[in-house]
Amino acid sequence: QHWTDEFLKWDPARFDNLTQISLPVESIWVPDILINEFVDVGKSPHVPYVYVSHHGEVQNLKPIQVMTACSLDIYNFPFDVQNCSLTFTSWLHHIRDINLSLWRQPELVKFDRSVFMNQGEWELLYILSHFQEFSVKSSDSYAEMKFYVVIRRRPLFYTVSLLLPSIFLMVMDIVGFYLPPNSGERVSFKITLLLGYSVFLIIVSDTLPATAVGTPLIGVYFVVCMALLVISLTETILIVRLVHKQDLQPHVPGWLKHLLLERATVLLCIRDRKKFSQSRTQSSDLSRQAENHDSTAKLTSYGCEDPRECGTLGGTRPALAFASRAEGSAVLQGVLRETTAIRQLLEKREEFRDVAREWLQVGYVLDILLFRAYLAAVLAYSITLGILWSVWRDV
């Protein structure tokens, strides 16, 4: 602080050419300039003297360390830029008594970083100064000098400790889609990732700034990532349930088969989509083979292929042929019943396998479709956040 006190002037010629003296602060008048944003007593070193020149100019060079209140906008955390104000004014004297002005030019004050400790969390960008007059209840005006201290947070620490672990977990969630859809390991893998992300959020909750005014974007980012992990786990459970082999599983509906195994394979550019059409013809081939076996069994049930041969044999020895034929027919019918039961069992088992194979193909195509939709959503979300944070960082 520099001010002129007309009662402290003297002629140096009358006092052995003495042009400057030091006086105790308690012995002279000192202006009551305070900072409006004070929230605590200033922790400043005690400097008991001021310099007084023969022109009446008083220099109070006491350094001041204060704790002030600042309205923070943490929406862009950790790429936020804060604008904190320091308002210097007098509480007792009007502008007619005390007027305020800058000792240096505003351009020199704006980019002066000589006394700023630049190794901490914040980086000083510039300091703006503004002078204005204000009045209280239509009384005399007061002088006010306001400084706007614009600082920017260094985001490297928060990027390493907050963003990168979250990004790594999301990448592992995407990689987990390459596990086979009919494998139960994918469900346990997704649950492990979700549990790990929950523990990660508990650890970093103390690092995020807590305020009731608004939520930082990084908090929204963590919540959305958690929601994406839950959606991924839900999709995995749906696919595993769809392709799970069950004896009572119905056939795939025709509209679903046409929509996924024909239209979706072309849309998704699946290279091995020919296997789907080939597998759908296997059941018809099996049914044809079953009919052929059935006709062959009917022919062999009579013991000969040509009825005339049977008639000739019957004509020569009717009684013996009839007895042997009756006995052979009973044995043959028993063998045929057993063979038919085995054939039906194998056909039913093959039918179950065809149904399971069809649902597996549907689950495979649906898994690819949902995975690409999930991947597109994650990429769009990541690109949007990256653009926003890069813009805020360069501001």
UniProtKB/TrEMBL annotation:
Keyword Cell membrane among UniProt keywords: yes
Topology term for the membrane: Multi-pass membrane protein
InterPro entries in the cross-refs: 5HT3_rcpt, 5HT3_rcpt_A, LGIC_TM_5-HT3, Neur_chan_lig-bd, Neur_chan_lig-bd_sf, Neur_channel, Neuro-gated_channel_TM_sf, Neuro_actylchol_rec
Source superkingdom: Eukaryota
Domain Neurotransmitter-gated ion-channel ligand-binding: 1-155
Transmembrane segments: 156-179, 191-212, 218-240, 369-392
Ranges for domain Neurotransmitter-gated ion-channel transmembrane: 162-384
Record key words, sorted: Cell membrane, Disulfide bond, Glycoprotein, Ion channel, Ion transport, Ligand-gated ion channel, Membrane, Postsynaptic cell membrane, Receptor, Signal, Synapse, Transmembrane, Transmembrane helix, Transport
Keyword match Zinc: no
Any one of the GO CC terms: postsynaptic membrane
Cited PROSITE patterns: NEUROTR_ION_CHANNEL
GO molecular function: extracellular ligand-gated monoatomic ion channel activity; transmembrane signaling receptor activity
Region (Disordered): 280-300
Compartment(s) where it occurs, according to its Swiss-Prot or TrEMBL record: Postsynaptic cell membrane
Catalytic activity: Mg(2+)(in) = Mg(2+)(out); Ca(2+)(in) = Ca(2+)(out); K(+)(in) = K(+)(out); Na(+)(in) = Na(+)(out)
Pfam families: Neur_chan_LBD, Neur_chan_memb
Family under the similarity heading: Belongs to the ligand-gated ion channel (TC 1.A.9) family. 5-hydroxytryptamine receptor (TC 1.A.9.2) subfamily. HTR3A sub-subfamily.
Role description: Forms serotonin (5-hydroxytryptamine/5-HT3)-activated cation-selective channel complexes, which when activated cause fast, depolarizing responses in neurons.
Binding partners and assembly: Forms homopentameric as well as heteropentameric serotonin-activated cation-selective channel complexes with HTR3B or HTR3C or HTR3D or HTR3E. The homomeric complex is functional but exhibits low conductance with modified voltage dependence, and decreased agonist and antagonist affinity. Heteropentameric complexes display properties which resemble that of neuronal serotonin-activated channels in vivo. Interacts with RIC3.
Protein known as: 5-hydroxytryptamine receptor 3A
Organism: Neodrepanis coruscans
Lineage of producing organism: Eukaryota, Metazoa, Chordata, Craniata, Vertebrata
Gene: Htr3a
